Amino acid sequence: MTSGPPLSTLDRVRHGILGKWAVVGHGFNIASIISSGFVIAAVIYCCFYKRALINRPSFRLSAWIAACDVIYSACGLCTFDNAFMSSLSEIQLRVVHWFMTASVVSFVFLTVCLGIHLVLTVLTHKSHIARPIQPWYEYISMFLGFFITHPILYMYRRMQWLPMSQVFHIVTDPSLYRRNSWLTEWAWVFAGTFFLLGVSIAVCNKMILSFTSTAKLTRLPEGDSQWDGETMSSITSQRIKEIRSVTIRITLYPLVPIFTQTWVLVASNLTICPMWLFVVANLVPATQGMINFLIFLMNPAWDNSRRKLLRRARPTDIERPVLKDTKIGYAQSDSSTAHLSPCYTKHSG
Fold first, then answer.
1. Average pLDDT over residues 45-62
2. Helix (H/G/I), strand (E/B), else coil: 320
3. pLDDT single digits (tens) 84-94
């Protein structure tokens, strides 16, 4: 059952017990909507002018993650407006609560699809399976997210809005509420996050080992390498750094709901919630769209564009030697994961 700090005469204040913090929450939600809108616009632009990027699920799914953020922040704007929330009927309150929960679960399923794609294309080399199913990732994720959470529309005896605490108040047995909230939201959030963390670690290790094996193939019959020791060391350290960077950036997505929603989980399961935790639980989730926007800017799909900008800014730089001729077929067999190939460089693919 959701509860806030002890209630007082602050119910006469427009923003309830949050006071001025509700205004901050408004700002965070608006900023998240603007940030998510930029992500969606960038992906739509690339659909017409850089279609090669659309073949990368991590890039394409970013637009759908941004759509989830828009839904969550739009509902968040409503929850910071007591006058509006107090005017809603119970079924309308349930719909708002459902949309907020479903957007988080859908977001997690979208990131799980990234993990499934890496398992099929990098770990098990089954690109022939990944190619026909990857266009369905976003549709299945959104459907499951809203389907799994839809019992919120009828599951509890009663749902109402408490303007003093500015929270949803669910009238039901506390143990039943905790069980159902785990079945409809939290179990999926944590399971999806741990799955993608495991996949990312496996991919990173596999790619580093594959690159190390590839480097041995470049040695001449006499045992000497085609490059001097300093050059080979530079190539190896650079490629390993790139592999780690790619996997870490992909892993960042599922960590966002853990960071933003754990506060809500803790606060909603306390009988008396401290004021500082109550404020954090209301404000941090509103930053979700902004955080995902920053992760989108770090997406590996933008790496080539960033390199081009750096080359224009430093045209006299001498580029490091790269592995152009050596290729591993299985790692290059799917364009959506070509950047994870042990031999992929900024000149390949």
1. 80
2. coil
3. 888 999 999 99
The closest of 42, 87, 32, 86 to 62, measured between CA atoms, is: 42
The H or E element containing residue 291 is helix 288-297
CA distances from 168 to 22, 140, 180, 196 (A): 15, 29, 15, 31
Identify which of 118, 104, 208 has the alpha carbon closest to the alpha carbon of residue 146: 104
Per DSSP, the three-state class of 168 is strand
Rounded Cα gap, residues 96 and 149, in angstroms: 12
With 80 as the cut, is the pLDDT of residue 218 above it?
Answer: no
Q: Which residue has the higher pLDDT, 287 or 226?
A: 287
Distance, CA of 150 to CA of 148 (rounded, Å): 6
Please tell me the predicted confidence (pLDDT) of residue 36: 95
Helix %, strand %, coil % for the chain, to 5?
Answer: 75, 5, 20
**Is the model's pLDDT at 221 over the cut of 50?**
no
* Over residues 42-46, mean pLDDT: 87
| Contact of 334 with 127, CB cutoff 8 Å | yes
Give the tokens for residue 305.
């564009």
Contact 106, 146 (CB under 8 A): yes
Q: What are the Cα distances from residue 302, in Å, to 54, 59, 62, 327? A: 12, 9, 12, 22
Q: Cα–Cα distance between 70 and 76 in angstroms, integer?
A: 10
Q: Is the dihedral of CA 170, 171, 174, 175 positive or negative?
A: negative
Distance CA 79, CA 70 (A): 14
